[in-house]
Design a protein that fits this description.
Layout lengths: L5 E5 L2 E5 L4 H13 L2 H9 L8 H15 L3 E4 H7 L9 E5 L3 H14 L7 H5 L4 E6 L2 E6 L7 H7 L1 E5 L2 E5 L2 H11 L2 H23 L5
């Protein structure tokens, strides 16, 4: 199936939509101008009239992760969007540290979250597992590992941001590009192309900025 994408320019930043009407696109563009990017994006990603919206569950899990001290990094399409390339997605992706201590924190957080998914302390402490959490109109995936790069340095380099005031670690742009390039799927490589374009535009803008001599 061919997906037709609509591209708008927000300043010098390309914003790509893979679904929705022009009216919905312009509404989101206005939200991005006036609200934190992650807030605007979740309004776009959240299904309309289908159960609980994605941003409500995203925020709820973030709060539980914070209370339990979970070491987690936001990855996937939400991270891609937060770094400047908006596209459609059906879920939110978190990457958590696969250690016995953090596995206990994640397990306790998922219990408090009342997650509907198959998970255990053993599974959460082992790398390269995925816990799929689903509900009425939302989905969240919790990864205990990716093939590349490694968690510890990525966690240290992750940007500190927030969603409605709740802290969240956002994977650094270079690490996100490395992760997606290594995964190598068509969507990952398309994301890499758009993220590298954003990096080049940011670099060009910085070079054009006046400097104090």
């Amino acid at each position: 199936m061919t997906v037709r994408a609509t591209v708008y320019a927000l300043g010098e930043q390309p914003v790509v939509f893979e679904r929705g009407t022009p009216t919905e696109h312009w509404t989101l563009l206005e939200q991005i101008r006036t609200e934190p990017l992650l807030v605007a994006l979740t309004k776009h990603f959240a299904p309309i009239g289908q159960g609980v919206s994605m941003n409500e569950k995203f925020l709820e899990l973030l709060r539980v992760f914070e209370r339990k001290g979970v070491k987690a990094v936001l990855i996937g399409a939400y991270a891609v969007a937060a770094h400047g390339h908006v596209r459609n997605t059906r879920d939110v992706d978190f990457w958590v540290e696969a250690s016995p201590e953090n596995a206990r924190r994640v397990f306790d957080a998922l219990e408090e979250f009342k997650a509907e998914g198959k998970y255990s302390l053993e599974k959460l402490a082992k790398e390269d597992n995925i816990v799929h959490l689903t509900g009425d109109g939302w989905a969240i995936d919790v990864f205990t590992g990716v093939r590349w790069p490694k968690f510890a340095p990525c966690y240290e380099r992750a940007a500190e941001t927030n969603f409605f005031g709740v802290p969240v670690k956002l994977i650094a742009l270079d690490d996100l590009i490395a992760m997606k390039r290594f995964a190598g799927r068509p969507q990952d490589l398309a994301d890499v192309a758009m993220l590298e374009l954003k990096m080049q535009q940011d670099s060009d803008a910085a070079n054009r900025a006046p400097r104090d001599d």
